[in-house]
Write a structure and sequence with these properties.
Blueprint lengths: L7 H11 L10 E4 L14 E4 L8 H8 L15 E6 L8 E4 L9 H7 L3 E7 L3 H7 L11 E6 L16 H13 L3 E8 L1 H6 L4 H24 L3 E5 L24 E6 L6 E2 L2 E3 L3 H8 L14 E2 L11 E6 L12 H4 L3 H9 L2 E5 L15 H10 L6 H11 L6 H13 L2 E7 L9 H14 L3 E8 L8 H16 L3 E7 H4 L6 H13 L3 E4 L3
């Protein structure tokens, strides 16, 4: 075997870059043998480990591969797979779960408001529905008593949102205005997704439009809320485009480790705030301002400072999250400062404000890692630190318990004992909030220890927070490990756009399914 044998798919991805293709929307690439047959397809009786974490973008593909009677598109009639997932994506999925969820977080912001008989509403568009519901409520799916969720449909007439950076923000803002006009709602939570969603696309002009759309609708909502006598809190869940360039000048389309703004507009007059805190401080601040007791489980500290005697509790409060709006010094790499944001500029100059930590250990993530919407909303709602699945998995690898996990061993030994294949499927990245190459490598090591004969790797690419050509580099790292271990092959590669949907774009999931099961995609000849 030559020095470069085994690098067929990493080379094919690099050739795709030369042809103008990029990681996120990469059409499927499939390894073929000398007779033109696809290698490593899913077959009945095979074992699959979907090693992604987070979960909301993994449900649809898992359903298509495991759900009896699945009918969103035609599927193989007898694809009996031994299927395991790294974490639980949804309770009703037919899969063994390696790291089940901890108990639902109790005494969250929403639960506390509901416990006191107050009505609340959560508003966003479908792109962020899981965040304002499931994550904000402490990983609880069901609304609390008196909780209403208003989810505006996400546009489906565009492939990527740089074609329509405004997304559905006008309709989201209108829903917020309707809630402001309805005195029944004591608490209104709204999320404007644009900066985060569009910020992952390498299109500066579109990002500027997204930032300006958020600022424009921020102005509309804040004006209406203050005129109606509401207390208003404006903040964010993590940063994105305020650090759009790496130090070497290349574009960074990922999240950041920046702090986020926190502003408080109070009809009773300016409040005194601590100058800094973290996302866990938002819930106790809101509860204190509403005159509600802060649960003992909330270890966050109210940002309110100074004497508050004689101040009446806020009868109604709006908490507005500008998704992805981080804070950084102005400059050419700060696309927020490059945009026209008169409303946010005015609020920052005139309203009491603070900066909140929204990354790394402050939101339960490994030290030095960037923030994300999942951790951000979870910590905004929980008012305390909740350690992420990634931290638990990394600790399990370090202490060795990962290699005796029953879900992993069940899948791997099923393949070994039946002489069938083991498929490892997931995101290829060191930095994605959806998973880590470290977890894939640990699974590869476990498969080798257990004596599995055939290991096939199916890679999903998405350059979010990654440098140019990182996808091909990661694929090559996997190919190199396969060669060194004498086990495993990367047999298919696809952009996460096609495999990690959450808006029921079933045509995308079908493309991934047909790649995995039938080997449909651009053929790449195996080197040997």
């Amino acid at each position: 075997m030559s020095e470069w044998a085994g690098d067929a798919l990493s080379q094919a991805v690099r050739e795709g870059y030369r042809a103008g293709r990029e990681d996120e929307t990469l059409e499927p690439l499939v390894l073929i043998d000398g007779r033109g047959n696809p290698i490593g397809r899913f077959r009945s009786g095979d074992a699959v480990i979907f090693y992604n974490i987070r979960g909301e973008r993994e449900i649809e593909l898992t359903r298509s591969l495991t759900e009896p009677g699945f009918s969103e598109f035609p599927v193989h009639p007898d694809l009996a797979l031994h299927f395991a997932t790294m974490i639980r994506y949804r309770e009703d999925l037919k899969a063994e779960v390696a790291f089940p969820p901890d108990a639902v977080v109790a005494d969250t912001l929403s639960e506390t408001i509901a416990r006191h008989g107050l009505k609340q509403i959560k508003i966003t568009e479908a792109e962020k529905a899981v965040h304002v519901g499931f994550f904000l409520n402490g990983k609880r799916d069901e609304p609390f008593d008196g909780e209403v969720r208003r989810i505006v449909a996400t546009r489906k007439d565009v492939a990527l949102f740089d074609e329509a950076p405004e997304m559905s923000i006008a309709a989201v803002a209108e829903a917020v205005l309707d809630a402001i006009r309805d005195d029944a709602y004591a608490f209104i939570f709204a999320n404007f997704p644009n900066v985060d969603v569009v910020g992952h696309i390498e299109n500066e002009a579109a990002i500027l439009r997204a930032v300006e759309a958020v600022d424009r609708n921020l102005g509309r909502v804040v004006e209406a809320a203050t005129r109606a006598g509401l207390t208003v809190v404006v903040s964010a869940d993590h940063g994105t485009v305020e650090k759009w360039l790496y130090p070497d000048g290349t574009i960074d389309t990922g999240h950041t480790d920046s702090p986020v703004p926190f502003l408080l507009l109070d009809p009773d007059g300016p409040a005194s705030l601590r100058p800094s805190g973290e996302l866990t401080d938002i819930a106790p601040t809101v509860l204190e301002r509403m005159g509600l007791p802060v649960p003992a489980a909330m270890t966050g500290r109210s940002l309110l400072a100074g004497p508050r005697s004689g101040q009446k509790p806020a009868r109604r409060l709006l908490l507005l999250v500008l998704d992805g709006w981080g804070h950084a010094a102005p400059g050419p790499g700060n696309l927020i400062s490059c945009a026209q944001t008169p409303h946010m500029d005015r609020l920052w100059q005139t309203a009491p404000h603070a900066l909140l930590a929204a990354a790394g250990e402050d939101v339960g993530l490994p030290e030095g890692t960037v923030g994300n919407s999942e951790a951000g909303h979870l910590h905004i709602g929980a008012g305390r630190r909740i350690y992420a699945d990634r931290v638990k998995i990394d600790r399990a690898i370090a202490d060795g318990s990962f290699f005796s996990n029953p879900a992993f061993l069940g899948a791997i030994r099923a393949a070994r004992d039946a002489g069938t294949a083991l498929h490892l499927m997931g995101i290829v990245s060191f930095f994605s909030s959806h998973g880590s190459l470290r977890h894939l490598f640990a699974l590869m090591d476990l498969a080798r220890r257990e004596g599995v004969r055939d290991v096939f790797i199916h890679a999903m690419l998405g350059r979010r927070g990654e440098k140019p050509e990182s996808g091909a580099n990661y694929i090559r790292e996997i190919e190199t490990k396969c060669l060194a271990d004498g086990l495993g092959r990367v047999v298919s590669v696809i952009g996460r756009y096609w495999s990690m949907d959450r808006e029921e774009n079933w045509d995308r999931i079908e493309k991934t399914y047909r790649m995995l099961v039938y080997g449909e995609g651009a053929p790449v000849a195996e080197k040997g």
